[in-house]
Write a structure and sequence with these properties.
about 180 residues, mainly beta, 3 helices, 7-stranded antiparallel beta sheet, Pnp Oxidase, Chain A, 3-stranded antiparallel beta sheet
């Protein structure tokens, strides 16, 4: 390791301080039905509507996604840590099928959609890139569903956190001008 290279431990510690939503990414198709918990999901584009997820290249789920070419990003609600734990392999009964912990429908792509997730983003995988230890999958959204009010499950500092309602005004209600501040 060179003297100016960041260590893996330092990198993981720094990123653990950044809050992230928790999602369960599912897939189904010729390679089978699988799922895993991720905190590395973000929007890519509004045209076409797309998101990306990052999955460890050594994960069996990674190989299944690469073959099936479909994913559903199921963004979890704040009271659904048990679903995250089931798909993250953290439960004592880890031999159990994690899909049994909640109810599912099949999305347009065939990927399992969690019935009571905060949001479902059902996608066809349009691009993949391997970088370091992970594959980055870009999913073009074929259908989406917002399942009512709720707060997302947040992961930070290696634990789940609750977030409260903000007392600030929504951006749409703010009068904002660059000229005002220059």
């Amino acid at each position: 390791m060179s003297s100016n290279q960041v260590s893996g431990d330092d990198f993981r510690e720094a990123l653990s301080q950044i809050a992230a939503t928790v999602s369960v990414v599912t897939t189904d198709g010729v390679a089978g039905k699988r799922g895993l918990t991720v905190s590395s999901m973000c929007s890519v584009s509004a045209d076409p509507p797309s998101v990306l997820v990052c999955v460890n290249r050594d994960s069996d789920v990674c190989h299944t996604i690469r073959e099936n070419k479909t994913i559903c990003v199921n963004v979890l609600k704040s009271d659904q840590a048990y679903v995250s734990d089931a798909f993250g392999g953290r439960l004592a009964e880890s031999g159990n099928d994690p899909f049994l912990c909640t109810s599912w429908n099949n999305g347009v792509t065939g990927a399992p959609q969690m019935v009571n997730a905060l949001v479902n983003l059902d996608c066809y995988v349009r691009n993949e890139l391997q970088h370091g230890t992970h594959f980055i999958f870009v999913g073009e959204i074929a259908s989406l569903q917002v399942n009512g009010p709720g707060m997302p499950l947040i992961y930070r500092a290696r634990s789940y956190e609750l977030i409260g309602r903000s007392s600030s005004l929504p951006l749409e209600e703010l009068e904002y001008s660059w000229e005002r501040y220059t």
